[in-house]
Design a protein that fits this description.
The protein contains 11 helices and 11 strands. It is α/β, with parallel strands linked by helices and 252 residues long.
C-alpha cells in the first residue's frame, strides 16, 4: 500500500464500496496502518493520516545503520523519506545503501522518494533570513517546506543592520501566505517583518552571535517578547519545526 494518507485510505474504502476490492483484502492492506516494527524503531506509518505529513527521521543520535533501516521501513510502507540533521559522512553511507537518496548539504537534509513533490500548499511560504551566518537554519526550513509540498520563496541577507534591503522586498513579503523569519544576534528581524505584513510570522532564533547572545537565547527571548502580535516562535535553530507549522498553516 502506498503511504497512508487520507487520500489513499479513501481510495481503499471507495474500492471496497465499488466491489473492486474484497473486505478481507482491504483489511490486510490496513493491517499495518498504525506502525511497523523494525530492529531499531517503531516506525509511525499512521502519522501522514493523522498530521498530513509522514514521519521524519531525526538524524542526531542515530547510527547510519539505524537511519538506513528506518528509511527502508518507510519506503516499504510506500512513504517518502525525509531525514534531518544528517552529517555528510552519514549521508555518504546512507547513499551507498539507498542509491536513490538525495542529500542537501547546506540544509543537512536527506531525501529518498519522489523527484517532484505535488504542491499541496495554498500559497507561498517566504523564508526570510537576516545574515549569511543564519543561512544553514534557513536552508533547513526551505528544504523541509519544499519537500512538504509548498511553494517557497527565499529572501536572504536582509537583517536590520541594513533595513533598506528588507523594505525593497516588501512586495514579496506581503504576497506570502505565511512567513518564516530566521535571525540571530538580538533577534529583531521577525518584529520588523511582523509590522509590515498581515500574515502569520514564524520566528526562528539562531545560535549566531557574540558572547551575550548566549547561543541564541537572547534572540529567543527577544522574539518571545515581540511587540508584533502576529509573531510566534519556535526553538533555537529549529528550521524544521518552523517549516512544519508553516506547512499546516499553508493548507488551511
Amino acid at each position: 500500500m502506498r503511504g497512508v494518507t487520507r487520500e489513499t485510505l479513501r481510495e481503499v474504502l471507495e474500492r471496497v464500496r465499488a466491489g473492486e476490492l474484497a473486505p478481507d483484502a482491504a483489511l490486510e492492506k490496513l493491517a499495518h496502518l498504525p506502525y511497523l516494527d523494525n530492529e531499531h524503531a517503531r516506525v509511525d506509518t499512521h502519522r501522514a493520516l493523522r498530521h498530513g505529513v509522514p514521519e521524519v527521521i531525526y538524524g542526531p543520535g542515530k547510527t547510519p545503520e539505524q537511519v538506513i533501516e528506518i528509511a527502508r521501513t518507510l519506503r516499504h510502507a510506500g512513504q517518502d523519506v525525509l531525514a534531518t540533521r544528517i552529517e555528510p559522512d552519514v549521508a555518504e553511507r546512507v547513499a551507498r545503501a539507498l542509491p536513490d537518496a538525495e542529500y542537501d548539504a547546506p540544509a543537512r537534509l536527506l531525501w529518498v522518494g519522489r523527484k517532484e513533490v505535488p504542491i499541496t500548499g495554498r500559497g507561498v511560504i517566504a523564508v526570510v533570513s537576516a545574515g549569511t551566518a543564519d543561512r544553514p537554519v534557513a536552508a533547513e526550513a526551505i528544504g523541509v517546506a519544499r519537500r512538504f509540498g509548498n511553494r517557497v520563496e527565499p529572501l536572504a541577507d536582509v537583517g536590520v543592520a541594513g533595513l533598506h534591503r528588507l523594505l525593497s522586498a516588501s512586495e514579496l513579503l506581503r504576497s506570502a501566505r505565511v512567513l518564516i523569519v530566521v535571525a540571530g544576534m538580538e533577534g529583531a528581524l521577525p518584529s520588523v517583518v511582523g509590522g509590515l505584513v498581515d500574515k502569520p510570522v514564524i520566528a526562528v532564533p539562531t545560535s549566531v552571535g557574540y558572547g551575550a547572545s548566549f547561543g541564541g537565547l537572547a534572540a529567543l527571548l527577544g522574539m518571545l517578547t515581540s511587540c508584533a502580535s502576529n509573531v510566534t516562535v519556535v526553538n533555537i535553530d529549529n528550521g524544521f519545526g518552523a517549516a512544519y507549522v508553516a506547512t499546516l498553516v499553508n493548507r488551511i
